[in-house]
Design goal:
This protein is globular. The strands form two sheets. It has a seven-stranded parallel β-sheet, sandwiched between helices. The relative contact order is 0.12. It has two domains: 5-165 and 351-366, Glycogen Phosphorylase B (Rossmann fold), CATH 3.40.50.2000; 170-348, Rossmann fold (3-Layer(aba) Sandwich). The chain is of the alpha/beta class. It is built from 14 helices and 13 strands.
């Protein structure tokens, strides 16, 4: 059996890194002899997360352009040239059969170097509005795996394959984990539970809104599992101090996310691509509060794909302090609406994304 060689490139955020690792794992499952090399950006989280997942990674000195005028931008052309040269060297030495880009700074130079050498390439785009790197690469690659329909407005139609986003496997079959989740968080199984997540750093607006509404949540017999992010820990602990016995729980980061989804009747979340994909598979009624500063407002576009199908609710960031807690209490008390949202969102979920993308990667090698 021949040994395939695959380069996977990109990162910068968990939203890029997690799909990259999921694709690598799916390739390894189908073809265990495959040699996989990751290429990331020096100083970014992939340099730590990828080795932790058991894969080798090489870092490029690439950086992003700041949107505002700053001295940092003067370094950009030099770092780009250095990254292109290093990417060229990596491709020459590793001799990949195929290159995969998942978005983020590093995938640009690497896929440019690979496609120039005639290496077949595939891009995976997580969002409903593509990042600049993937837009630039679209004409150079053979296949574009996307998570949302309607992407032909950005990419050549004949190259697009609708696959959804690869998500962690442990969030499937959550029903069986509910009891363990209730014990893990110390909750009352007879009360309704809300999960609040704002990404690993937290979300300031969501945190402030929840902080201001804790008394009302407790009065309405609603339990809370609240991931605050590390920047809001102290404020949150003060806010919940007198409500611990009411099932109001706060933590900077949730390690057992599958348990958190399992116990949640309703979720409040930002609308990053991976959050939307995970919540679709978990089939949870969700109120999205999109991050307004996300590039091209892509989080609003991600959320609207569900809202337009009656599969989620949306509260604007600048209105959250006034309306988020009211909207949340209304939804928790409306079981018919929860059921309808769960059913609608489950129909939109892609459950085998990593496996389908892995098949496409192998097809490109065999061509």
């Amino acid at each position: 059996m021949s040994q395939y060689k695959v380069i996977i490139s990109g990162g910068g955020t968990g939203g890029h890194i997690f799909p990259a690792i999921a694709i690598a794992n799916a390739i390894k499952l189908k073809h265990p002899e495959t040699q996989i090399l990751f290429v990331g950006a020096l100083g970014k989280m992939e340099m730590e997360k990828v080795p932790a997942a058991g894969y080798e990674i090489i870092g490029l000195p690439i950086m992003g352009l700041q949107r505002r005028l700053t001295l940092q931008n003067l370094k950009f052309p030099f770092k780009l040239i250095a990254s292109l040269l290093k990417a060229k060297k990596i491709v020459k030495e590793f001799k990949p059969d195929v290159a995969v880009g998942v978005g983020g700074y590093a995938s640009g130079p690497l896929l440019k170097a690979a496609t120039k050498k005639g290496v077949p390439a595939l891009v995976q785009e997580q969002n409903s509005y593509p990042g600049i790197t993937n837009k630039l690469l679209a004409s150079k690659v053979q296949k574009l795996c996307v998570a949302y329909s309607g992407m032909e407005q950005f990419f050549p139609k004949e190259k697009i394959l609708l696959t959804g986003n690869p998500v962690r496997q442990d969030i499937k079959n959550l029903e069986a984990k509910r009891i363990r989740g209730i014990e893990h968080f110390g909750l009352d199984p007879n009360k309704k539970t809300v999960l609040v997540v704002g990404g690993s750093l937290g979300a300031r607006t969501i945190n402030h809104s929840i902080d201001g509404g804790i008394t009302r949540l407790a009065e309405n017999n609603i339990q809370l599992v609240w991931q605050t992010g590390k920047l809001y820990v102290d404020e949150a602990q003060k806010a919940v101090a007198s409500f611990e016995d009411k099932g109001i729980k706060t933590m900077p980061f949730i390690t057992k996310m599958d348990y958190a989804y399992a116990v949640a009747d309703v979720v409040v979340s930002r609308a990053g691509a991976m959050s939307v994909s995970e919540l679709s598979i978990a089939a949870k009624p969700t109120i999205f509060v999109p991050l307004p500063s996300a590039a091209e407002d892509h989080q609003t576009k991600n959320a609207m794909a569900l809202v337009n199908n009656n599969a989620a609710l949306l509260v604007k960031d600048n209105e959250a302090n006034e309306v988020l807690v009211d909207t949340l209490i209304d939804l928790v008390q409306n079981e018919d609406q929860q059921k309808q949202m769960s059913e609608s969102v489950a129909k939109m979920a892609f459950t085998d994304s990593a496996s389908i993308i892995a098949d496409e990667v192998i097809k490109l090698i065999k061509k």
